[in-house]
Amino acid sequence: MLDNIRKHTDKIMWFIAAIFIGGIFFWYGSGGTNTKAVVESKDFKIEVSEYKEKLNRALRNKRKEVESELSEDQITEVKQQVLSSMVNTETLYYEAKKMGLTVTDQEVAATIRNLPQFQQDEQFNNRLYKQAIRYSMNMNPAEFEKLIRKDIYTKKIERIILSTAEVTEPELQLTYKRKNGSLEGYENNKEELKNSIIKEKRMAIYRQWMTDLRRNMKLKVNPKLAGLR
């Protein structure tokens, strides 16, 4: 359900997060975890119970989406997505805390109030909010607000990392000339090219940054407990 929330907020992270879906197998080589943790690192661990709770919720949502029973391949894909999402969230959350970033109660409240899922007649509806998280998400307000707080933390640190992607005028011109043979039409296509290069740089920066974070955290994933082996 937190994924659905992100559709209405910072959409660029959907594009970048997709890089890691299916890349979960890269982490398996780091070794096993204890018998209760699906994922373990020097900073955090994801217990089996927590993973199964989110997995079951994701599977229910997927069944509603396709309006049928899921195939084995679809179930495996959901497992990979849930585990990948949980690892990314926890990794970013703890890194954000280390960097000294903060998230206030006011930020959490404002984010929830602005979510379209909880609005009626363009205003936040507290009754709708409580019903939605209870019956659709199987959560209480405290659990949901914790997810929102972590989501804000991750967005803050993501924006900091992504902001380092820059492109210079000489680089733009060189790239355009290499692709087109000359600078004819450059000014008309400059912004589109710039956005394309920045997007590629953001992907590369984010991928390398996340890889380095996981390595430094000494991530260990137990695919058997995740139902992936």
Using brief descriptors, characterize the structure shown:
mainly alpha; Triger factor/SurA peptide-binding fold; three-stranded antiparallel beta sheet; two-stranded antiparallel ribbon; 62% helix; globular
Number of helices: 9
Largest sheet: 3 strands, antiparallel
Number of strands: 5
Largest sheet: spatial strand order? 2-1-5
CATH topology: Triger factor/SurA peptide-binding fold
Cα shape: globular
Order of helix and strand elements from N to C terminus: HHEEHHHEEHHHHE
Mean model confidence by pLDDT: 83
Helix content: 55-70%
Q: Name the CATH superfamily assignment.
A: Porin chaperone SurA, peptide-binding domain
Domains, number: 1
Q: What would CATH call the class? A: Mainly Alpha
Overview of the structural elements:
The protein is mainly α. It has one domain: Orthogonal Bundle (Triger factor/SurA peptide-binding fold), CATH 1.10.4030. It is built from 9 helices and 5 strands. The strands form 2 sheets. It has a 3-stranded antiparallel β-sheet with strand order 2-1-5. A hairpin with a 2-residue loop joins strand 3 and strand 4. Helix 4 packs across helix 7 and helix 8 crosses helix 9. The longest helix is centred in the last third of the chain and has 32 residues. The protein is globular and about 60 Å long. The two termini are about 25 Å apart. The relative contact order is 0.17. The N terminus is likely disordered.
Write the layout of secondary structure elements.
Blueprint: H1 2-6, H2 12-17, E1 37-40, E2 45-47, H3 48-66, H4 72-98, H5 105-113, E3 119-120, E4 123-124, H6 126-136, H7 141-162, H8 169-180, H9 186-217, E5 220-221
Antiparallel strand pairs: 1-2, 1-5, 3-4
Helix pairs in contact: 3-4, 4-7, 4-9, 5-7, 8-9
